[in-house]
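How a chain folds remains the central question behind the approach discussed here. This step matters because it turns folding into a mapping between discrete strings. The sequence in question and its structure tokens are set out directly beneath this paragraph.
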Amino acid sequence: MPANIYVYCPAVKDGLGRADLEEAMEEFFGAAAEDCGAGSGKDGFHLDYELEDGEDPYAWADRLKPFLARIGVRPGSTFDVFPDGWEPGQEWRRVEVFGEDRRRTDRPGK
């Protein structure tokens, strides 16, 4: 499994909508990542990205947090970072755009 970054935005009125965020993320990642999925529901939406081989997901995460805050993502937005080859039980990272940044080993989910 390649390195992945999954961005989650809650269903609130303030902040960027899905289409605007998708466009901004495409510019942010350039050729370093590919859109590999997205979805919407009553709780909000998510955008999924697969990093190209050799890209450091944690370095991208360090740049992504201030980028998302600067462009005005919705309050409560988060993103999860999974390194190349990640399997359950291994370390991953949950970043709250306007809050904590934690490395975790528990099962991903809300």
Helices lie at 18-29, 57-71. The mean pLDDT is 95. The chain is about 25% helix and 35% strand. The beta strands are 4-10, 33-41, 44-51, 78-82, 92-96, 101-104.
